[in-house]
Amino acid sequence: MTQRYDAIVIGAGINGCGIARELTNRGKRVLILEKDRTGSGTSSKSSRLIHGGLRYLESGRIGLVYEALNDRRELLETYPDLVKLHPFYIPVYRSGSRPVWMIWMGIKLYGMLAGSGDGNACGRVPISTFTQTFPALRRDDLKAVFVYYDGKTNDLALTERVADEARANGCIILEHSSVSKVRWLDSAFEVVSNGETFEAPVLINATGPWIDEVVTRLNLPARFNVRKVSGIHLFLDGVLVDEPLFMQTRERRIFFIIPEPENNQTLVGTTEREEHLPVDKVDVTEEDVIYLLNELNGYLKDTHQIDRKDVQAVSLGIRPLVAQKGDPTDLSREYELDLHRKGKTHLLNVFGGKLTTYLSLARKAAKILNVS
């Protein structure tokens, strides 16, 4: 027996679950097919930030930052138990790759885009105050310190919450259900998974970093492809700092030091390395771990240096960035919604996207699918 739905979504990451929730909010019967578990891919291996992306201002992506900050505001209001605003500190050392004036202008613009509110305040912090608050960090060569605000979350818990809301609307989520075949007819898609056949006039490919592999394997049309950029996070025993830190590397990259007192650990990340292997074959290298440890220790006092044995866990997530020329560090985090029509059917490929902007992405997806 063929099971029929209004839409079938491949992939139960934050974007797939977000689109499913949006469509079910509008009265549609939706099925999600997930080859592993809900949120088991990149959606649970991020820096756990709900943010506009301060560094994206450097490359002029003001529209992306503005959209993300609007989504951040809504997520703070909708999920106060999961998304919370925190001060983020930026210490600027003489060895830093960006001048003080540039960072000052960046956080002021970021604050303007975020809008009014006590939680969005940003400004300069006295060095004496900073060194008292962050005793583990070096004071020598420290030129200035700035503070701004952004959101923190538990990325997996947020993805699972959105999935639960979609289920409450009637969405069916089948985990461990890899799609083996898609037959595209004029009236519907026939999708085969685990020996069962499902049918719908709308198919949404929200497979994140796997999207190019899925497009090829299922012989689907696509106007874009992605560059796979992996990022690792180190989880250190104990709380190293009391509030999150935005740090610069010598190569103009950035990394975060984020305390997680609820787990008695500190998250440090991330790296940015382009991958060319299939997603499931990408793994953490010891070189990645040592790179982050060296960058971290470069800012710590001798009495607070971190050893390899202090790393209790390492995670790796792959960001699917819409393919463009240039260094992976500079690639845009903007997404592309790639719509194809045939008869009465619609195929939508979701290229790119980030945790914070799943709300806007889902609403745009529903709009271009003409779902009212």
Question: Which strand order spans the largest sheet, edge to edge or round the barrel?
Answer: 8-3-2-12-20-19
The strand count comes to 20
Return the average pLDDT rounded to an integer: 93
What is the CATH topology classification name of the largest domain?
Answer: FAD/NAD(P)-binding domain
CATH top level assignment of the largest domain = Alpha Beta
**β content, as a range?**
25-35%
Q: What low-confidence regions span 5 or more consecutive residues with pLDDT below 50?
A: none
Radius of gyration from the CA trace? 21 Å
State the domain count: 3
User: Which architecture of the largest domain does the CATH hierarchy give at level 2?
Assistant: 3-Layer(bba) Sandwich
- Biggest β-sheet: count, sense, barrel? 6 strands, mixed
- What is the CATH superfamily classification of the largest domain? FAD/NAD(P)-binding domain
Order of helices and strands: EEHEEHEHEHEHEEEEEHEEEEEHEEEH
**Span between termini:** 29 Å
Q: Which percent range fits the helix content? A: 25-40%
Give the number of helices: 8
